[in-house]
Amino acid sequence: MSNSKLNQTLGEFIIENQSSFKYSSGELSRLINSIRLAAKVVNHEVNKAGLVDIIGAAGDTNIQGEDQQKLDVYANVKFIQTMTKRNIVCGIASEEEDDFIAINSQDENNQNKYVVLIDPLDGSSNIDVNVSVGTIFSVFRRVTPVGTPVTIDDFLQKGNKQVAAGYVVYGTSTMLVYTTGDGVNGFTLNPAIGTFYLSHPNMEFPENGNIYSVNEGNYIHFPVGIKKYIKYCQEEEGDRPYTSRYIGSLVSDFHRNMIKGGIYMYPKSSKNAKGKLRLLYECNPMAFLAEQAKGKASDGFTRIMDIEPTELHERVPFICGSKNMVEKAEEFMRDNTI
Ligand SMILES: O=P(O)(O)OC[C@H]1O[C@](O)(COP(=O)(O)O)[C@@H](O)[C@@H]1O
Ligand SMILES: [Mg+2]
Ligand SMILES: [Mg+2]
């Protein structure tokens, strides 16, 4: 991509690349545009995280038993509102909603074909401590007929059926990074004028990296394969030891590893038999991005995007990042399956 493309606005990029999308009808472009708008609204609030009325718990728990933070709820409302008001989706599922939301899909005039799954605020434990957080989204074409009520089947699709996925990272700068199956591009928000500019075209994971990201506080509970891989990362050998970096926000750890080369792991453990991260609105979208950026994502054995979902909020073990590093970790998992 020539440098002249750099600093293209996100709006211009969406229009220019619409035709490269196999289902292009303008609908997905309008959807990405609405996510762009909601991201700016949420970014404005995130940047104030520290003021009393923004931080802290909202007082409710979500279906996963997690205390919802005020910003979890705020971001959830803003993304759902923005997409619903613009009548561009027929269904939305969210980490913060017990069940999926049908958006007037029973109305036969509703010709909308897309459903969206979102993690409105990723890295919630970092909101109050001024550490970067994110938003994650995944988009599918519905499988049930247009003009009929969406059903759970429209959401429980394998990740390899995604038509778009992305995230917003609210960090030292705010970026929107996404794919529609034709590579991964990153856009940085110029807060002075409220416009996203193409700053990171064709993002790719280096095949190898020297960063590993895992919550080592859970080490004793990890499967033997993961323990051995962590030891492998720490050995004095060749380009090792690798550097340990763990922000505790999936989006931020993924983003850093995609730029610098690295591996992120949230394995299963004797405490969490299926790990912590949710397949549909955390692992699938990050896996689609990873593969589009020449990286890899699995549960240690199976490609994440080939996993058949059975529940809206199901969790899976997650290993994702630079291709050769993920394959090495899988090798340790395979050789230590006790
Ligand atoms: O504190 P832990 O157990 O290491 O978990 C951190 C992980 O949990 C998450 O915060 C889960 O996401 P949410 O904040 O959206 O619930 C990830 O972003 C992060 O990688
Ligand atoms: Mg999350
Ligand atoms: Mg979340």
Automatic annotation (TrEMBL):
InterPro entries: FBPase_C_dom, FBPase_class-1, FBPase_N, FBPtase, Fructose_bisphosphatase_AS
Domain Fructose-1-6-bisphosphatase class I N-terminal: from-to ranges: 9-201
Entry cofactors: Mg(2+)
Record domain Fructose-1-6-bisphosphatase class 1 C-terminal: where: 206-333
Binding residue positions for Mg(2+) 1: E95, D119, L121
Catalytic activity as recorded in UniProt: beta-D-fructose 1,6-bisphosphate + H2O = beta-D-fructose 6-phosphate + phosphate
EC number from the UniProt entry: 3.1.3.11
Note accompanying the cofactor annotation: Binds 2 magnesium ions per subunit.
Associated pathway: Carbohydrate biosynthesis; Calvin cycle
Keyword Hydrolase: yes
Location(s), subcellular: Cytoplasm
Complex and partners: Homotetramer.
UniProt record similarity statement: Belongs to the FBPase class 1 family.
NCBIfam families the record matches: PRK09293.1-1, PRK09293.1-3
Name under which the protein is recorded: Fructose-1,6-bisphosphatase class 1
Organism from which the protein derives: Winogradskyella bathintestinalis
Biological classification of the source: Bacteria, Pseudomonadati, Bacteroidota, Flavobacteriia, Flavobacteriales
